[in-house]
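Illustration 12: Outer membrane protein assembly factor BamE.
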Amino acid sequence: MQHPTFLTSTLCACLCLLSACTGVVDRRGFLADESQLAPFQAGVDTKESVLTRMGNPSQTGTFDEQTWYYMSEIQKQTAFYRPKTKERSIVAISFDDSDKVAGVRKYGLADGRVIAYDRRRTPTRGREVTFLEQIFGSIGRAPIQLPGSDPNLPTSAGGPRRQ
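Figure caption equivalent — predicted structure in token form:
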């Protein structure tokens, strides 16, 4: 028969291992409550009423400051894996010239697009230097001393010269 403390410690160790695998949920951005989510009326609500209900926007339009964006995202990360986005919400509120709401659009995770970056490299002039060439490349090189210059001034060799 096994000792009860052994069983207890084994059970605690198993629970600790299992709890390490549970995901960590991270909520980012604008988190609205139910009173803020009531729909805005086009032509009635103004920038002031939107600011009062929603607060400052997460982002304004890059080329059109008459559009405000309220963004939020929920991510879950399990152990050492990369976080996965579980939910994304973007509310875009556009205003007309008289600062009244012109339209409200809502976007979700399904509306996003994956951007494929170009992996090609742009060649540079010269040649690539290896790691060892970088380390040993300056051995034996003497600092350049121009005639008539003060030897006590700092140079690229690292500081004033001793006499």
